[in-house]
Each structure stands twice: as C-alpha cells, then as structure tokens.
Design goal:
The protein has 448 residues and is mainly α. The chain contains 17 helices and 2 strands. The longest helix has 40 residues.
Length: 448
C-alpha cells in the first residue's frame, strides 16, 4: 500500500527496474514472469496512466531495459556455443591430420572407449608382468593397453592422482594411435620399455625409495618416449635437414618431438591423466617427463653414464639430485633392454631394429646422403653389431646400476653375458665363413 505522505506522482521518484523475460537467470537467481506478476498484484502496486507523458528518467530506464535484454540474449548465445563445444569434445587442436606427414597434428581421438576390463587379467599374468622374462610378443594391441592400465592401478597411481579410469583408457588408446607402424619404433616397443620399467620397479623395490610421483613420471615417460617416431634417427634428421631438425636446431630433434606430442595429447581434456593435479605439481611432473625423454637420446649415453658412476660411491636415496640421476639411468636401461630378455624374445627385436636401420640406409643412398653407421645392409653383420653393443654399452650400464641393486646381477646381467657369448660364437662362425669365401674367390681368380 502507498503511504499517505508519498508524492502523488510515483514517477517523480521511480523505483529500480529489473528486466525479466518469461524465464531468465540473472546473477544466479531465476525469475518467472507469472510469479512476479502475481507478487506485484498482491502488493497492489499502481502504475501511472499510460497517457501521462513519460519523464526523462523513464526514457533512460526503458533504454536500459532494452540494452539489458540484448546483453542477456548475447550471453545466452555464448553459453550455448560453449555447451556445444564441450559436448562435441572440441579443444581447439587439429586432430584430423595425417601425422605421418604433418608433425604439428595428431590423429583423431578414438570415438569408442575400450571395453576391456583390468579384471580380465589372471594372477599368473600379473606376476609374470613384473619380470624381465615376460613375453611381449604374445600380446595383442588391446592386451598391451590392458596391461599398461594394470600397471597404473597396481602401483596405486590412479588413486594417488585421482585419475578417472576412462581418462586413463583414453590416454593409453590415444598414445597407441600416435605410434607409427615402424619395424622397431612402434607401439610394441613402447610397451616393451614400459613393461621393463614396471619390472625394474618391482625387482629393485623402488616403491620403498621413490614417491608415487616419481613412479608415475617414470612409467609415463616410458609410454611416451618414442611417440610419432618417423623411423629415421637423429643423424638422418640432421643430414637431411628435415622439418624436425630445423625446428629443434639439430639438438635431439626426435626426443624433443616426442615430448611435444606427449603434451599435445595431455592437453586434450579427455586424455589428461594429470587433470586433477594442482598446477604447480603438474609443472614439476612435466619438467621431469621432458628430462627423462630427452635422456633417451643415445648421443647422451656416455655423458649420463659417466655422471651416474661418479655419484655411486656417495649415492643417497634421500638426495634429490642422486634420485634424479637414477631416474635418467633407469629409463636408458629400459629403452635398450631387449637383450636382457630370453633369446627367443630378444632376437626378433634385433632383426626389427636392423630392418629399420637398413631402410634408413637405403633412403640415404637414394638421397645421396652419407650412409650412417650400422645402416648399410651390404656391410653390417648382425652378430658383430650385437657383440659390440652388449659388450660396450649394455653390460657397463647395467653393472653400474647393479652396484645399487645387487639383485640385478642374477636377474639381468647374467642374461646379458649369455647373450654376449652366443653372439660372439655366431660372429666367429660368420667371420670364418667370410674368410673361407675370400679364399675360394681368390683361388678361382688364380685359376683363371
């Protein structure tokens, strides 16, 4: 009711006007026209006669009403666009390019979430997965995904980082889609390296010495360490002046590219296993993953091994610097660990690697480039190459790590020594055949 002392013309002191549509929200409060009209009727608010001339204040208020209506409608349209983008999974990244030709893009996200369950694994398989003897050749593509998912659960990384199981599946599936079908640097190699790291974590009881974050970084770096590998090494990239070599100024172009693809995948919300991690912690995780992937460049092998050997005598698991060096050495061990496995598992890998190397050598010949070491199919001997690699690279590397973890002596180094003896015998036999062939050829020339 109007007070008796109130001026006769209410428009001389107009009330605040709120623009209301049939059903709108404003600052989180929802109004409905019918409810408001009923409330106004109950209060018996009178309105001035329509024929009464409007004051300047009323004109301003009416103009403000129109402006607010426009702004509300624009806001609604923006919200509808955002909702549509979220429903369509749009992230602003281009996913539909052919990554075999364009290094700046990624394949499409898989449309269907894998239907496999980690409960499908038998106890026997779970135990076998923890050992270097695990046969990685018997696994199909989906089985490798399932086994890697199990590793995250078994190490309690899913709980530690509050990872949505569906996001984990999507992450692994997208990583798989970003490995090319190379003879050696393919998704099975990724799985092989990751499984060896999981085995080292169990064999060396690393859960007692490292945090969950350390373990997650190690596992994730192994999974991503060769993403989108083109099948031609850094030496070729530099000699051929490829896009990657130019982009990264000839400095570990492949490893830098692997890092780039890793974090493009993690930038996709549906694949970001670290989405629930605080920003500061994510930056630390990102930095660690990058350092680990860059450490897999074989050109840095001697430098890293020398630094690790220097810290062994005073090594402390409480020293962050020592732990960082150990992580770098561990991923190097796992990346080149094929000969640690039984012969029937390791030897096919040697054949796959030589096939990829020879493909590069053939291309270098076609392009008139110097043919890299171990790339010429007309000169390289498999046994001789393996003898050198095991004797001068693998055994010194694993023996250094065994100084901290003596259990590696019987579980790993013994197998390496057996592999070395086997290839030395083959090398000697092959050399004998070569000498015999030379003698026969020389005798034939003399006869002619």
């Amino acid at each position: 009711m109007r007070d008796e002392n109130e001026p006769e013309d209410i428009m001389d002191n107009p009330p605040l006007v709120c623009v209301i549509t049939n059903h709108e929200s404003f600052h989180g409060v929802t109004f409905h026209r019918e409810v408001l009209e009923t409330a106004l009727a109950d209060c018996k608010v009178t309105t001035p006669p329509k024929t009464k001339p409007e004051t300047k204040a009323v004109e301003i208020l009416r103009q403000q009403e129109k402006n607010l209506e426009v702004e509300v409608e624009e806001c609604r349209q923006e919200l509808l666009k955002i909702k549509e983008q979220l429903c369509n999974g749009s992230t602003g990244l281009s996913h539909n390019c052919d990554c075999s030709h364009n290094h700046s893009g990624l394949p499409s996200l898989p449309k269907d979430t894998p239907t496999y369950s980690k409960n499908m694994l038998s106890d026997e398989t779970k135990e076998s997965l923890k050992k270097p003897t695990f046969d990685i050749w018997v696994c199909e593509a989906d089985e490798m995904l399932l086994l890697m998912e199990h590793m995250f659960h078994d190490l309690k990384l899913v709980e530690e980082f509050n990872i949505n199981p569906i996001v984990l599946k999507r992450f692994l599936q997208t990583v798989q889609a970003n490995y090319r079908d190379n003879p050696f640097h393919n998704f099975r190699h990724c799985f092989c390296v990751t499984q060896m790291m999981y085995g080292m974590i169990n064999l060396c009881n690393l859960e007692q010495h490292m945090s969950r974050t350390d373990l997650c970084v190690l596992l994730t770096a192994c999974i991503c360490h060769d993403l989108d590998h083109p099948g031609y090494n850094n030496e070729y990239q530099v000699k051929a002046r490829t896009e990657l070599a130019v982009r990264y100024n000839d400095g570990s172009p492949l490893e830098n590219h692997h890092c780039n693809v890793t974090f493009r995948i993690l930038a996709i919300p549906e694949c970001n296993i670290f989405r629930n991690v605080p920003e500061s912690k994510f930056l630390s995780i990102r930095s660690s993953i990058i350092r680990l992937i860059l450490a897999t460049d074989l050109a840095k092998h001697g430098e890293l091994l020398k630094a690790f050997k220097e810290c062994i005598s005073t090594f402390s698991f409480d020293d962050p610097t020592d732990l960082e060096m150990l992580r770098l050495i561990l991923i190097k061990c796992c990346d080149i660990s094929n000969e640690v496995r039984p012969m029937e598992i390791s030897e096919p890998w040697a054949d796959c690697l030589l096939k990829e190397c020879f493909q590069q050598g053939d291309r270098e010949k076609r392009e008139g480039l110097p043919v890299g070491a171990l790339m010429d199919r007309d000169k390289v001997s498999k046994p001789h190459t393996q003898v050198g690699f095991i004797k001068f690279v693998l055994i010194p590397l694993f023996e250094s790590v065994a100084e901290l973890f003596p259990q590696l002596e019987t579980a790993v180094i013994l197998q390496l020594r057996e592999a070395l003896e086997r290839y030395q015998e083959q090398d000697t036999c092959e050399a004998g055949i070569t000498e015999t062939q030379k003698y026969v050829n020389s005798s034939q020339k003399d006869c002619n």
